[in-house]
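Page 42, continued from yesterday. The earlier attempt failed because a stray header line got pasted into the input along with the sequence. Redoing it now with the clean sequence only.
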Amino acid sequence: MTLHRRHFLAGTAAVGGLLAAAPESATAAPGRATDVDKEFLAVLTKAADGRVAEVLDGRAAAIAELTTQGKARWAARSLRLLVSVHVWADAGHHHDAALIAPMTELADALAAAQFDDGLYDQGAVHSPPDTGFSIVDLGLTYGLLEEDDDTSTRSIRATLKKILLKAGKGLAEGGVHTPNHRWKICAALARVNSFWPDESYTRRIDTWLAEGIDQYPAGQYSERSATYAPIVTNPSLLTLARLTDRPKLYDDVRRNLEATLHLIEPNGEVETVHSRRQDQKTTKHVSEYWLQYRALALRDKDGRFAAVAETIQRRGADQTFDETPLGDFLAEVLDHPELAAPLPKATEAPGKFTFHDKECGLVRIGRDAARTSIFGGTDFPDVHAISSGLSTNPTFLKWRKGGAILDSLRLSPQFFSTGHFRAEDLVRTADGWRLSAEVRAAFHLPLPPQHRRADGLYPLTDDGRFWSAMDFPHRPKQWRTLRTEVRLRESGGGWDLDFSVGPSEVPLALELCFRPGGTVSGVEPVAGQADTYQLVKGYGTYTVGDDVITFGPGNGSGPRQPATVDAGERYSWMAGSLNVSGIRVLITGRAPLNYRLTLR
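This time it went through. Structure tokens are written below.
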């Protein structure tokens, strides 16, 4: 028996009785429920009820943002939260008359801010994809109100119907910016079409899906992002699979969740160093994946996925939630009641593993409480640009030993201001891994006679580092080269990293950046640089509680190997910075150099 939302909204007692009476044969197929996970629902209900005061207090600001800037997401999500506790029989605010006016106010404001073409701005003028985010929420909200069918919400439903139908046309005709936008628009159209079928909606969904899902064989989507995979792409594909009867889309979500299993840190963070989006330099958390792991655990009877979902539930409000507060998940469960079925038996995560994602140039290694990320998959060697949508993070190693976390290891040679070492490849060796790159810079010789101009006005061209009216492509070159190789080998419960840098003679700095909250010893402060130290000799330590990382040895100091990190002219010209927040320790040297860094 597939659980109907109207029955589910009656509360856990009614649902439990209804499902207990279901015939045994009705429980065999994926997505069928035989009981409800009352503890899971209690966690969500308490969190959602606890969010009501915050949402009510913030609704004036949400409406102001909507009316002055055209940004609908905050108002739409606020309305979704209030509706979820209004329709849910177990909630403390069930059919609370005090919520009708605030919900009406939000719905009316959303209707008033909508353009004639059905779209909102959300920071981009008449934006179909940004509108899609809000329409997904408002479609879910409308469905819950319709199933509840309480007389007090009739006018709110009428307003939402006008918004959704008006948006349908704009979404069925509009365009996108990024890969994930396609799937969000499809999900929004599927929501509207589920209430008022229209061939223009389904044609547009078919057209976008005909481009193919942008997923690599190992499971990451093309943006390689722990922000957009769980917040946009996976939820959109799950909605499409369910509302448009496309079960093969579950396969894409499943592959992504399998890949993500290897990126989850013991404390609930998710590795992002390989991302092509803004999260390549921020910390993300597994909480955003919660209902996706739960959905596929139930569908596939997958104990690995169940273990992740159970862990997120057990941590509850004590964990970090990125964009979706704990209570906001209730609406999704009310919309898809099968998510409330009891999870299958959890499978303990392996304590030791090695996962090599070749498409992303990422290796993840687990050794009980220790986790390592080796990264050699930036886009920079291919496109030589720093831009939104590209993977450019120069961090090539991250290592955590319990609570002691090395958030970033980078190498910065001062070679023609070309910036950090960014590996061109990541190769498995007999005893570990190898990262390497070759960077060249030219001195330009006189132009051959056939390319000279009497007026001296040569075209503005790019020499790979800067632009000038020099007609660089036609000039002979004198090249200077810097080759870097890093060999990484597990040793003594940690790592040995052998660096070979040359042949050009340049200063360089290894930058170790440790997570704030610990203490370093054996190092010297670097004048004028906050939270920055230099390891000149011997070994240093970084300590958090009982967990200690030992690193070194130091490699001297002096004016020919300054304690500075050169981010490169692409950043310095724009007064940009690549500094990682935390406790930075520099080990300096001068190429040609062979040096071994040990981490224990």
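Notes: The chain has 16 helices and 21 strands.
Reminder to self: strip header lines before submitting.
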